[in-house]
What does this fold into?
Amino acid sequence: MSEIRPGFHPSAQFNLGHYAVEEKLILRKLAKQWYVTNAGAKFRLGATSEYKYCLIKPNENFKEMFNLEREIVVIFSPYKELQPRTLDAIDYANRTQPDLRVEKICSIIFSNDPNCETKIKDLLKQDQESQIIIPINYDEFQQSTDPFFIENKFRRHFYTRDLFAFESPLKKDLYFFGRTDIIHKIVNRHQSNENSALFGLRKTGKTSVIFKIERTLEKNDNKSIWIDCQNTAFNQRRWNEALCYIIHLIREKYKQDIDEHCTKIGASKLRFKDESKYTEKDAAIIFEDEITKIYNVFEKKSILLIFDEIERITFDVGENEHWSKGMDFIFFWQTLRSIFQKLNSVFSYLIVGTNSMCVERPLINEKDNPLFNSVPYSYIERFDVPQTKEMVSKLGSFVGLKFDEVIYSKLTEDFGGHPFLIRHVCSVINSLAPVDRPFIVDRIVYAKAKKEFSAKSSGYFDMMLGILRDYYSDEYAMLEYLAIGDMEFFNHFALGSPEYTQHLIGYGIIAKTNNVYDFKIDTVKEFLLSRNKYKKVNLTTEDMYHECEERRNKLEPKLRSLIKSQMKARFGEVEAKKKVLAFFQSEIREKISELSLSEILSADKNKFLNFLQLKVIIYGSWEVFQHIFMKDQKSFDYKMDIVNTIGRSDSHSKTISKDQMSEYRIAMSWLDDRIKEFEG
It folds into this structure.
C-alpha cells in the first residue's frame, strides 16, 4: 500500500463550498499534516443546530503511534457554546460512513467554544463507552505554531483515558470483544424457534452478551425485549400480572412501530387489556391474544423474550414468597411454554442468570418443573489466548501500551479467560505505566501489576463466588478443599455427586485433565487458599509449628487493640489506664505507670505485657468483654490456654499431635470469629 501523504483528495479540494472561511483555513492547515479524503457534508440536528463533517486519514507516524488504520471523522461546531447534542452530531456523522471505512474509536471536533475541552471531558464522564474525542478550539488551532499540536492533543486524550476500567455492562460494540460463538448460537436458535438459557458467575459479561444479542437482532430488524427479573416492577407481581407486564414492556419499546401499523391499517389504536383483566383464570388466553397482535404488527417476526437475573423469580431462591415458596414459578412457565408450543413462531425465550437450578431440578414441591429438559442451556464461555490478545492488544494500543507476546497467555492462564478480571489487571498495568508512551509491558511489569491487583481484588472474587457460597455450598466447599490440596475430600464429593463438578466446570472455575481436577483461574485458587490455608491437612511437624506460631502472633495484636478500644469506651482514657495497671504486679506497675494506655498495651513500649497477661486482663474485666465472647467465660479461658500452650515458639521442642492441632485450630477459629466484628 502506498504511503499516505498530507493534502487533499481532488474531489475534496474542490468541494469546500459549504464551509465557512475560518473552517476552510482550518482544513488547509490540517491538510499540511493529514490527508483530507472527503469534504463531507452539512447536516442538521433538530430545528436549529447545523454541523459539518469531513474525513481525514492519518500519516504513517500517527498510524503507528495510535493504532489508527482507517479514516477519522472530523466535526465542525461553529457555536460559541458547545452543547451535549454535539455528541449526537459525532454519532450521526459516524453512522453515515461504512463501518470498515472510518475509525469508530475516535473522532475530532473543531469547536468555536474556547472551553470545549473541559466541556467534552465532562460530557464523556457520563458515557463510559463513548469513543475518544479530540476537542480543538478554532482559534487555538489557527494560532498555534507547534508542529506537534495535534499529536499532543491525541496523546493527552488517548493516553490519559483508561479503556480497561469498565464496571458496567457494555451496551455498544466499540469495546465489546469475543463471545461471537455463543451470540450466534442463541440468535440462530431464536430464529429457528428454539429457546435457550445462559448461565455464569457474576461479572462474567452476561448482561453485555444480552445487549449484543439485542443489537445483532436489531440489525436484521428483529425484535427483542429485555425483562429484568430483579426489577421490583416485575418480581413483585404475581405470575399472571407478570405476563401483562411483558406485554407492557413490548408496547413501550415498540410504540412507534405499533402506531405506524395502526396508521397503515386505518385504526386509531390497537386494543390491549388492562392488568385487572389478567386474572389467574384468563391471563393465558389474553397473553396469547396480545402477543399474537404484536407479532402481526412486526410483520410476523418472532419476538425474543430475554429473562435476565432469572434467580430472582426462581423457586427456593426468589426474592418474593410467591415465586420462591408458592406456585407462581410453575404457573408462569407452564403458561409461557404452552403458548410457545401452540403458536410455534410468535416468540421464544432466553433465560439468563447465575443459578442454573431453574432448568436442572425436575420437581418443585412435588410438581413437574416446566423448564426441566425443555430449555437447552450453556455456560458463558471464557476467552482463549487469541481472544485475550485481541481485546488487550487493541485497547492497549489505543492507550499507548504494547504487550510482550507471552503476557497474553499469562493473562489467560492466571485469570481463567475471565474478561472482567483481565481488563482490571490491565487497568492496574495502565496505572503503573509511565506517562511517556508507547510503553512495553513485559514480565516484570505484569508480575508487579498482578501482585497489586490480587492484593485489592478480594471483593471481586467474593462477588464472583457468592452464587456458589449462597446456593451451592457443597460445591463451594469442594473449591476450598481443592485450593488447599485436600484431594481426598474433593474426590469424595466429585465421585459421589458428579453434578457438583459439572457446575464448577461449567462456570469455568476448574478443569479436568487426565482425570485430575485443577483450577482454571489461578487467582481464584490463590484467593481461596488465603482464606482457607488453616484448613490444610497432612501437615508436617514444621508446618504445624509454623501455623501455630503465625496464628498466635496475629491474634496477640488484635487482643491488645481490643482491650484498648473496649476499656477506653467503657471507662474513658484515665480510668481505663488505672484498671489495666491494676493487673500488673506492683514493681512492674511502677516501671510502666508513666506510659499512656496505648503505650501500656504496645508490644514495643511495654515488654512486661505478654499473651498470658492479655488473657488475665480480659478475664478479670469480664463485664467489659463478655458480649464479645458470647458470655462464655469458661470457653474463653480454656481456648486462650490452648493457644498459649501450643502456639508459643518455645513449644517447638515438643511434638504436636494431630488431635492437639485440631484442638488448636478450633480454639483459634473461635477466638478469631469472636474478635472479627470488633477489630479496628
